[in-house]
């Protein structure tokens, strides 16, 4: 059953409670789970709202936000719980490049501080290498584990290295080059990569 030890961030924009403000949406997870109450919950919510650069919109309601801003609120809500397991399904896909990079930095900083388990689904090879320390390559329907790649040596500063580019090309081949035959028979030629960053 559901529990406060695990949180999920979806890729859809409309995962917020429309009658609650940005601050109240982030606080909701904290208060309903019993983690924090009152001023402590508000302070924790504002801490993570600041991390996603939405402090000026703390009292705004979801209908007043863009899709990317709504997504950042959902990310703040998930991270504010500081869960043991954080499940993220393409959470940064709707964000612009600069915001996406900042969210990756904040997520990795949070992981470095708290050492929770993160399961992160993405269609970006670079993002999988940066976010995960183990990458599972999944085949198209029916989804099966095609390969698992160790990415512990990579981080936000690794993208220009020859080793990073080599790993990128290897994953690209696994996703596309070797999939050409199967892709012509599948309605969905794209495969997904799941990046896993485990608690130490």
Task: Summarize it.
The protein has 200 residues and is α/β, with parallel strands linked by helices. The chain contains seven helices and six strands. The protein has helices at 22-32, 38-51, 67-80, 97-114, 125-131, 162-175, 180-183; strands at 6-9, 85-89, 117-122, 134-138, 145-150, 193-197.
Strand order, main sheet: write it out.
1-2-3-6-4-5
What structural class do helix, strand and pairing data support?
alpha/beta
What is the succession of H and E elements?
Answer: EHHHEHEHEEHHE
Count of alpha/pi helices: 7
Rg over C-alpha atoms, rounded to the nearest angstrom = 18 Å
Shape: elongated
Indicate the low-confidence ranges by residue numbers: 183-190
Helical content (DSSP H or I, runs of 4+): 40-55%
Termini distance? 25 Å
Main β-sheet: number of strands, strand sense, barrel status? 6 strands, mixed
> Would you report the number of β strands?
6
Round the mean pLDDT to the nearest integer and report it: 85
What percentage of amino acids are in beta strands? Answer: 15-25%
Describe it for me?
The protein is an alpha/beta fold. Helix content is 41%, strand content 16%. The protein is built from seven helices and six strands. It has helices at residues 22-32, 38-51, 67-80, 97-114, 125-131, 162-175, 180-183, and strands at residues 6-9, 85-89, 117-122, 134-138, 145-150, 193-197. It has a six-stranded mixed β-sheet with strand order 1-2-3-6-4-5, with helices on one face. Helix 4 links the parallel strand 2 (85-89) and strand 3. Helix 2 crosses helix 3. The chain is elongated, with a radius of gyration of 18 Å. The two termini are 25 Å apart. Residues 183-190 have low confidence and may be disordered.
